[in-house]
Amino acid sequence: MENTKNLFGKCPYFTAQKVLAGKWSILIVYHLNDGTLRYGELQRRLCDITQATLTKQLRMLEDFGLVNRHVYSEIPPKVEYSLTELGKAFNPVLEQLEIWGNKYIESLEESD
C-alpha cells in the first residue's frame, strides 16, 4: 500500500477526508454557505463548539483554501468569514449529504 503521506493531492477520497477531517468542518462550511458571517455569529450557530476549536477549524479550512478571513481595520477589530470559490463548490456535496442524512434518519425512525 502506498504511504498515506503521498496520497494527499493524488487520491480524491484521501484528500477530501483530510481537508474535512475536523469534527466541525462540514457544519462550518454549511453555515458559511448561507453567506458571510462574523466569528460570534458562527459560534452561536454552532452552539456546542468552544472558541479554541472554532478558531482551529477556521484556520484549517482557511489553510486548505475553503474559507476566506477578512479583518477590518477598526476598533474593536471586526473579522468576517466567507467561503472561497472552492468552498462554494462543496455545495452540491452538502445537498447530497442532506439527502443521505434524511434517508438515514428515516431508517432509524422505521427501526424504532
From TrEMBL:
Keywords assigned: DNA-binding, Transcription, Transcription regulation
Record carries keyword DNA-binding: yes
Organism: Clostridium cellulovorans (strain ATCC 35296 / DSM 3052 / OCM 3 / 743B)
Protein name in the entry: Transcriptional regulator, HxlR family
Superkingdom of origin: Bacteria
Ranges where the HTH hxlR-type domain occurs: 11-109
Pfam family, one: HxlR
GO molecular function (one): DNA binding
Cross-referenced PANTHER family: TRANSCRIPTIONAL REGULATOR (PTHR33204:SF29), TRANSCRIPTIONAL REGULATOR, MARR FAMILY (PTHR33204)
